[in-house]
């Protein structure tokens, strides 16, 4: 899987736009068919219960898959593509690493506050902001988009004066920076790359039927005093078809990471509709588990083994069917 627009846009043009404005917007960076294929690799409706594979978690009105490099080969190919690395090489130069990546689905109305993404954490506790350079890449995977991306143009150059605030109020932004807000009516397959020091958000929406799907990842230039900064990256070894020392460093191989995977989720972070689906699912699974445990209690160990052998043995066609 590869980019579309980025193949015909010079790295210098992309980097120049980010340095000046804080962002670069690419229409149709992915074909819509490719965007659909990327989204198909994630099942946002499946809530895992005692299943030994990767899936989504729920946090309020949002669902996340935070281990894309272990789940999706298409996501891996995009994150490690030469086009992305060229932009990072030009804008961040040396010492940059993939800090986090995730698929995210937002629904039933959501109010995202204005913020920057240069956060420092201790566990789940916010400590303040850092001044390391970094980029965020967001690909939109659904349309129509009722919550377009918004960025305060040029704010990456002066946002440090708000480093004590994790969020900035809507009223403050409207009062002081309304004329600098740029709104992007992003369509499926479009890409926005921006400096993580810039103040941005997805515009809030109230439509309870609207669903927004995105794929995003964040790359930062890690300084020695911030060792351990970032989330752990789980990588499917079968995806790595272009191994190199630079790639392994970019993905965080052998590098300490101290941040918890975002979001910090549990049953308590699930919205009521997902809780109701979970309880229905649990009821059916509980009945199956009770039936299975009762059967095990009535059958001897020898009978259980014999039954498993019959279930596991491949069903071969009969001699009559083979003759026909």
Describe this entry's structure for a reader.
The protein is α+β, with helices and mostly antiparallel strands and 324 residues long. Helix content is 31%, strand content 23%. The strands form four sheets. It has a seven-stranded antiparallel β-sheet. A three-stranded antiparallel β-sheet has the order 9-8-11, with no helix packed on it.
Number of distinct helices:
10
Mean pLDDT: 87
Shape: globular
Backbone CA Rg: 24 Å
Helix proportion of residues, in percent?
Answer: 25-40%
User: Topology as H/E string?
Assistant: HEHEEHHHEEEEEHEEEEEHEHHH
Q: How are the strands of the largest sheet arranged?
A: 1-10-7-12-4-3-2
Q: Which structural category do the helix and sheet elements fall into?
A: alpha+beta
Instruction: Report on the biggest sheet.
Output: 7 strands, antiparallel
Low-confidence stretches: none
Number of strands: 14
Distance between the termini: 44 Å
The proportion of strand residues reads 15-25%
In short:
By secondary structure, the chain is α+β, with helices and mostly antiparallel strands.
Features:
alpha+beta, three-stranded antiparallel beta sheet, 324 residues, 23% strand, seven-stranded antiparallel beta sheet
Write the layout of secondary structure elements.
Blueprint: H1 11-21, E1 23-26, H2 32-40, E2 57-59, E3 62-65, H3 68-71, H4 73-79, H5 82-92, E4 96-107, E5 119-122, E6 125-129, E7 134-140, E8 149-152, H6 170-177, E9 181-184, E10 191-195, E11 200-202, E12 211-221, E13 228-231, H7 245-251, E14 257-259, H8 272-298, H9 301-312, H10 319-323
Parallel strand pairs: 13-14
Antiparallel strand pairs: 1-10, 2-3, 3-4, 4-12, 5-6, 7-10, 7-12, 8-9, 8-11
Helix pairs in contact: 1-5
């Amino acid at each position: 899987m590869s980019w579309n627009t980025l193949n015909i846009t010079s790295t210098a043009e992309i980097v120049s736009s980010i340095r000046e404005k804080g962002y670069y917007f690419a229409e149709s960076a992915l074909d819509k068919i490719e965007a659909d294929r990327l989204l198909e690799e994630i099942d946002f409706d499946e809530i895992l219960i005692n299943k030994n594979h990767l899936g989504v978690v729920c946090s309020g009105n949002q669902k996340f898959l935070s281990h894309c490099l272990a789940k999706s080969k298409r996501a891996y190919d995009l994150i490690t593509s030469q086009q992305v690395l060229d932009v990072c090489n030009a804008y961040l130069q040396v010492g940059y690493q993939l800090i986090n990546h995730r698929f995210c689905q937002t629904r039933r109305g959501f109010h995202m506050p204005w913020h920057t993404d240069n956060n420092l954490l201790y566990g789940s506790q916010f400590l303040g902001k850092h001044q390391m350079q970094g980029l965020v890449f967001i690909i939109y995977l659904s349309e129509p988009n009722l919550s377009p991306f918004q960025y305060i143009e040029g704010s990456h150059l002066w946002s440090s004066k708000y480093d004590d605030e994790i969020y900035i109020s809507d009223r403050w932004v409207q009062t002081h920076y309304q004329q600098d807000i740029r709104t992007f009516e992003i369509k499926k397959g479009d890409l926005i790359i921006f400096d993580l020091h810039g103040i941005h958000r997805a515009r809030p929406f109230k439509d309870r039927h609207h669903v927004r799907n995105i794929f995003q990842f964040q790359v930062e230039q890690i300084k020695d005093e911030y060792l351990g900064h970032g989330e752990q990256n789980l990588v499917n070894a079968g995806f790595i078809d272009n191994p190199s020392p630079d790639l392994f460093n970019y993905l965080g191989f052998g590098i300490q990471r101290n941040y918890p995977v975002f979001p910090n989720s549990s049953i308590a972070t699930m919205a009521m509709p997902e809780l109701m689906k979970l309880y229905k699912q649990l009821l059916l699974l509980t009945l199956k588990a009770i039936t299975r445990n009762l059967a095990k209690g009535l059958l001897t160990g020898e009978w259980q083994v014999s039954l498993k052998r019959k279930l596991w043995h491949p069903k071969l066609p009969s001699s009559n069917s083979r003759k026909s």
